[in-house]
Amino acid sequence: MNRKSLRVSVSLLALSVLLVASVWASAPVSPVLKGGTPVGDDVLPYAPDRIIVKFKDTSMQLSTLKVPRQVGAVAPGTMTGLASVDALNQQMRVVQISRPFIEPKNTAEARQIGLERTFMLHVANGVDIEDAVRRYSADPNVEYATPDWRAFPAVVPTDPAYVQHWGHNNTAQLPGLDW
Q: Are the beta carbons of 99 and 69 closer than 8 angstroms?
């Protein structure tokens, strides 16, 4: 093979790789379920009905929000005692405030990272989550706000011994897990 034909072959290979990569990159986000499929339904990368908000320490001291520290525990209402946050809650049509995380065994570490100041705000259908995150993030009582991001397990590791690891596909031990 001469140099010219080698260059043409390499160029065609590079063009093919770019074409395949562009098709792959334009594919919709598809959660892997029950073995996966090459295409799936378009889904948002975050939950369409909730955001996670962490209040500043000084704001939490002024708040009247009382929610037990168990995952899923729900506040008795949607008022926090912080005027600007309560106004946002009404504008964003918050219907429920709950705890998004389990209570860790290391309570000192949990306190240091502020888990007790972190809440999930459930909003009514049709609320623009990205706009809600922007507006809560701009509030002086809020340390951060983020969508409730979804996780899509989609890759098998390159570990050559992966198939010998018994637990990767053993769903019987996690009966409550629902991707």
A: yes
